[in-house]
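lol forgot to send this yesterday, sorry. C-alpha cells for the thing we talked abt
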C-alpha cells in the first residue's frame, strides 16, 4: 500500500469507504444437509439472549480474516507507515485501526469519544464484538485495502428458550458464558431479528459437536434448570 497516493480526509482517517455489514446466513427451520448449518465461533457471551458469533471459518489459517489480520500487522508495525493523527479529526462512527493489548491490530468503529484531552475513544471491534476504550496513541487510519472484508461479528440469541424468571439469573449467565465462550459450534439459524438500529440478531440453536455425544446448548440450559422451553 502506497501512502503517497493518499490525500485529504483519506490521509487522516484512512478512507471514506464504508465497510459492509456482516453477510447473514440463511434461515433454516429443518436442516437436511451440511449446507443448512452455520458453523460459528462464540467470541463473547453475556447471557443466552446476548452473545456474539463470527463465522468459524475465520479461525482457519489462510481464511480471509486471518490474511487480513496478518496484512494489518505487517503494515502497521512498519514504522514508515505510521501517521501522526490530528485528534480533532476523529468522529463518532469512523472506522479506524487500533492496536490492542495483545499487540495485534484490529478494525474498530468509534462509538463514543470518552475524553478529548487527551483523546480516549470507546470503540467497537467490528470483527469480534468487543467494546473497549482505546487511547489516541493506539489508533491509525484504516485504509481502503483493509475495508473490503465485511464486518464479521454478529449478535446472536438462543432460540426456543427463556429465563426461569423474568430475567437471566447470574448463575445462568456465568455457566452459559463458561460453556460457550471462545468455542466453536454447529448452529441452525431459526430466525433473524432486526432491531431499532437496523442491526440483526441471529436466533440460533447451538450444537457442541466436539465430544463423543453432541450437546445442544439450548436443551442443556433447560436440563440444568437455567431456562425453560418456549415456542
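and heres what i got for the seq, position by position
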Amino acid at each position: 500500500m502506497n501512502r503517497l497516493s493518499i490525500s485529504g480526509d483519506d490521509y487522516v482517517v484512512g478512507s471514506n469507504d464504508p465497510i459492509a455489514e456482516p453477510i447473514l446466513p440463511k434461515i433454516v427451520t429443518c436442516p437436511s444437509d451440511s449446507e443448512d448449518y452455520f458453523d460459528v465461533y462464540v467470541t463473547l457471551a453475556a447471557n443466552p439472549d446476548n452473545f456474539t458469533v463470527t463465522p468459524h471459518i475465520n479461525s482457519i489459517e489462510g481464511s480471509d480474516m486471518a490474511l487480513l489480520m496478518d496484512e494489518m500487522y505487517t503494515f502497521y508495525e512498519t514504522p514508515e507507515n505510521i501517521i501522526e493523527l490530528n485528534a480533532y479529526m476523529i468522529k463518532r462512527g469512523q472506522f479506524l485501526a487500533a492496536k490492542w493489548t495483545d499487540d495485534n491490530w484490529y478494525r474498530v468503529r468509534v462509538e463514543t469519544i470518552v475524553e478529548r484531552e487527551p483523546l480516549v475513544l470507546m470503540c467497537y471491534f467490528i470483527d469480534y464484538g468487543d467494546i473497549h476504550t482505546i487511547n489516541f496513541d493506539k489508533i491509525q487510519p484504516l485504509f481502503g485495502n483493509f475495508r473490503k472484508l465485511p464486518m464479521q461479528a454478529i449478535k446472536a440469541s438462543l432460540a426456543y428458550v427463556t429465563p426461569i424468571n423474568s430475567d437471566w439469573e447470574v448463575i445462568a449467565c456465568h455457566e452459559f458464558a463458561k460453556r460457550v465462550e471462545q468455542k466453536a459450534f454447529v448452529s441452525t439459524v431459526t430466525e433473524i431479528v432486526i432491531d431499532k438500529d437496523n442491526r440483526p440478531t441471529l436466533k440460533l440453536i447451538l450444537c457442541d459437536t466436539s465430544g463423543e455425544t453432541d450437546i445442544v446448548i439450548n436443551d442443556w440450559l433447560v436440563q440444568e434448570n437455567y431456562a425453560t422451553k418456549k415456542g
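Confidence is low (pLDDT under 50) at residues 1-12. anyway ping me if u want another try
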